[in-house]
Write a structure and sequence with these properties.
alpha/beta, Rossmann fold, seven-stranded mixed beta sheet, two-stranded antiparallel ribbon, 20 helices, 9 strands, 55% helix, disordered N terminus
Length: 445
């Protein structure tokens, strides 16, 4: 079976370039040949259906696009669906096809016909037709308002464009950021920015600098970390400084041989607080603190001091949540609260009254934190998980990954005396942070 799939992909790759180079809407194919292709689209053989979809490039655009929508995108085989998506891209700048696709999207959202939305939106997002971009924006606004699947679909769209990794993808991602639907949802906004930053092209650097003044919170932090990492400069939120740097270095700019990673140490820009040295970029923050029995004594005293210091550094633009845990959970408020001076004082009182005891139900605490509409979770703990609904570290990592795949919440982890580098506790906290868009900070006693 694996050999067959490998041969199938080789065959698809062999014809992929001719398809991409084919002129959209070459209508030289005869009526009889087109009928033969339509029959081939219903062949029992996967390779036949893939070949038929590739031959649609020679059809009249509207006729070919209708066949893709009716047959190709709903095929059971992923290879056929991929070929269908590639076929649609041939006509991405055809106004008639764009109109057909937009009508199909509206119909799908209203009546749930079963047509996959993602590949159609991706084609429209890559279109260079101005009117298509405007109509797509209206659709996206309605899609987000009406469908529970909207945010996961748009996050996946951003990820796919990031994987595509070319200049067209960067331009498409920038275009998506002009739509309220993308900007209004944290997960969508962050997925688009992450996709841009993950494309190793000069266009991505220029896009990051252009987007910086339009962003806030954790997403703005993503851009600042990226720029500071690739440049070695510390300009924070100063857009003019970044513009001047890029003007000086854009000609012939080359990324390092390794993928872009954020610096292991970073200083908080002016006006941004910190917690154990980690900048608090997020506007909506949940602090999660371990108060299990092993935290008794100097550990919990120091942890309380650091946490109240971080709370004091928040501004009235921040929304705050607190979760303490051992075997049980202690939740300060059921919703995030604006961090006014009075609220910060109440939060301090909650922290000071915490007492250590019990075991370590880490997953339960993270699960509670995910119930908030948050951008970032800061987890402090000194011991491996050993209690709660999911008591094992590996299972917690998997469960959090599933939850956070579409949420895009940062999880920052602070390990108190986590043992030797590579120890089970150290490795758990490191992976939890690094696999969830955050950082890991070791703190020795």
């Amino acid at each position: 079976m694996r050999s067959f799939r490998l041969l199938l992909w080789i065959a698809m790759l062999a014809v992929a370039w001719p398809l991409a180079a084919a002129p959209a809407g070459d209508e030289k194919m005869s009526a009889s040949d087109r009928k033969a292709v339509q029959t081939q689209l219903h062949s029992r053989l996967t390779l036949d259906r893939v070949d038929a979809l590739q031959r649609l490039a020679d059809f009249p655009p509207l006729e070919g696009a209708r066949l893709v929508l009716q047959v190709g995108l709903t095929d059971q085989e992923p290879e056929v669906r991929d070929a269908a998506s590639a076929a649609l891209l041939v006509w991405k700048d055809n106004a008639d096809v764009a109109g057909l696709l937009l009508k199909s999207l509206d119909k799908e959202v209203k009546k749930s016909t079963g047509m996959p939305v993602l590949p159609v939106v991706k084609v429209l997002a890559e279109s260079e037709l101005p009117e298509t971009g405007q109509r797509l924006g209206k659709f996206l606004d309605g899609f987000v308002a009406r469908s529970k699947e909207a945010v996961p679909t748009l996050v996946t769209l951003a990820d796919e464009l990031g994987t595509q990794g070319d200049a067209v993808a960067v331009a498409s991602l920038q275009g998506l950021m002009r739509h309220k639907a993308m900007v209004g949802k944290f997960a969508c906004r962050r997925a688009v920015v992450q996709a841009i930053l993950g494309i190793r092209r000069s266009e991505s650097v220029a896009a990051a600098i252009a987007l910086l003044p339009t962003l806030d919170g954790e997403v703005r932090g993503d851009v600042v970390r990226y720029l500071e990492t690739i440049s070695g400069r510390r300009h924070g939120f100063e857009v003019k400084e970044w513009e001047a740097w890029w003007k000086e270095h854009c000609e012939g700019f080359k990324f390092s041989g390794k993928p872009v990673e954020s610096a292991s140490t970073e200083a908080a820009p002016p006006g941004v607080g910190s917690y154990y040295g980690l900048p608090l970029y997020a506007r909506r923050i949940v602090f999660v603190i371990d108060i299990s029995g092993s935290m008794r004594g100097t550990r919990i005293t120091a942890a309380k001091r650091e946490l109240t210091g971080a709370i004091a550094g928040l501004s009235t633009e921040n929304d705050l949540g607190l979760v303490a845990f051992h075997t049980r959970l202690f939740v300060w408020r059921q919703e995030l609260v604006r961090a006014t001076p009075v609220v910060r004082q109440e939060a301090d009182t909650f922290v000071y009254q915490l007492q250590a005891g019990g075991r370590t139900a880490t997953y339960d605490a993270l699960d509670a934190a995910f119930h908030y509409d948050t951008e970032a979770i800061f987890l402090l703990s000194d011991g491996e998980p050993n209690a709660g609904k999911i008591p094992f570290a590996a299972d917690i990592l998997a469960a959090v990954a599933r939850t956070n795949r579409q949420r895009r919440v940062s999880i920052y982890t602070i390990g108190i005396a986590p043992g030797m580098a590579g120890s089970p506790m150290d490795e758990f906290m490191r992976r939890l942070g690094e696999q969830n868009y955050g950082r890991y900070r070791r703190v020795e006693e």
